[in-house]
Amino acid sequence: MGSTTAHQMIYHIKSERLFPATKPTEKTTVLSLVDATTVDFSTSCAIWLCEKPDLPGDGFSLFDHFRKSFEITLSAYPQWTGHLKSITTLDRSQINKETADFPRHALHYGRVYVHYGTTSDPGVEFITAQSPVTLDILCPALRTRDQPIYNRQAISLHELSPQTVIANASRPSPPDKSGLLAPLMAAQVTQLTCGGFALSAKVGHPLSDISSLVKFAKDWASISQWILAGSNSPAPVLDTIFEPDQIDSMAAGDINADGPDPGILKQCASLPLNRYDWWISTEGCPWEAVIPEPYRSQNIEPIGDAMPWSEWDSKSPVSNYIVHLTREQVEIIWKDAIRGSPHESGVIRISRHDAILAHIWSCVTRARKQGEDSGIMHCDLTLGLRPALNLDPDFIGSPSMMVNIEMTGTQLASSTISAEERTRSIALKIRKTINQMARPTSIAAHLHSLAFDSCPQRIWQAFLGSRHLLVTSWARAGIYEVDFGLHSFPHIRYAEGVIADLDGCVLIKEAPPTGNTDAFGGGWTDNGVDVSLHIRTEDMERLIEDPLLLPREK
Q1: Is CATH 3.30.559.10 correct for 258-284+319-478+499-543?
Q2: What is the pLDDT of residue 344?
Q3: Model-level pTM?
Q4: What is the domain partition of the chain in residue ranges?
Q5: Cβ of 515: how many Cβ atoms within 10 Å?
Q6: Which residues contact 196 (CB under 8 A, 6 or more apart)?
Q7: How many CA atoms within 13 Å lie on the side-chain side of 251?
Q8: What are phi and psi of 440, to 5 degrees?
Q9: Beta-sheet pairing, 124-131 with 44-50
Q10: How many whole angstroms separate alpha carbon 186 and alpha carbon 380?
Q11: pLDDT in tens, 509-537
Q12: Would you say 276 and 306 are in contact if contact means Cβ atoms under 8 Å apart?
């Protein structure tokens, strides 16, 4: 069955640039060391499919309402309306006046900063559109019950998100035909024929991870509620913390020194991190690999491993399915993981997320026919740093890194190991690896290493293809807690995470509310869990037929 895209059914598209309701003061801010590593990542992007509003009445314009509330919300996020720039020279005498006051480590090649509050700010792209499709076409109301293994490609949501090119600090785009520079953020509101609507927003990854994007959406929603209430009371105070230097200040050693501390680098080398060196990995690369101009005349010494391009058939078709695990199925998986493990004695606490990831990793490995493979498989897991670094939940930015969890194919999927034993050993390995990397001393060593890399974008901590899963988690991000005040419960039918359609990309997130919330205390798993899987089509065909994919009560 071929896929149907919303692009074939969208019309009356209008695009404009919006700016903060309150004009910001001109400012230049260095982004953090970890923010700089995400320059070439995909954008942080989400789509919310919302039910038909039951408030207010005639004369109400959904587009005007969202536009007004959006501009007010932007006043708390002025950095998203400005310019993202990069240090592009090795000669510090050529540094411009914008960066004159930067600390020494922030002047290294590839470090990025945001400059906003200027007369040339590109603003945010705001798109409105209409579509004759319905919510039931885009996502059936009973999808989680009736179609727990759901072909997301059958009806693509791709065109419900902005098609705007987002600015990239390392590859600046020229102005478009209208003379506008690429923005750092774009949002789109699409009215559907059933009365519902789709809302989407995306931001350049150096400025926002999913936690920051959901924070923005919640702030936008609170302004929406305030306007709907009549705006007679003072507007809600939007508390945001945009202080990237908090992260750099937690680096070990002196990151403004002439060179790195060998002892700290040795400590960093022992951490569970992949270091794939982009600059030495041109052979076998399926697209053009370009070393930055200032380094082309230099002898490029390896600082990491060459990327294993032979393991990734980038031309092979990829399928995208959503696997829904009910709350009860999550509990079965979790109880298998903790039974007889150190969790029961309180030594190591295995989370439900650990157990879900263990289960999915095992199933995908089996679908890839690697159960008798004694070679190493990698789970490249995104680790959010807010809890580990004691950052405020309202911290705005992209404080995350990729952790490398390693096991053999045999350990992950051998038919000689019981499903319960597999889940337990994999979950335990996941938890031990996370605990090792989440120590403040480990992160501090990693930050020190980043400060002295020749370029923050040179090292990839993850890969794709047959021996890797690249896992992003939106657990506890609150994607279903965004309430614009236009509905009674439930107001969001489905929240889609827009991730690359590449072999090995996985997204774990909360499932939509059902109204049945008498949970087992799992919190974010109360309504079950949705796992968005992107793997090679021939492997996916085996995965969706796997009788172990959806656990049954024992």
Answers
A1: yes
A2: 65
A3: 0.94
A4: 258-284+319-478+499-543
A5: 7
A6: 49, 50, 51, 52, 134, 135, 493
A7: 25
A8: -55, -35
A9: unpaired
A10: 28
A11: 999 987 654 433 448 999 999 999 999 99
A12: yes
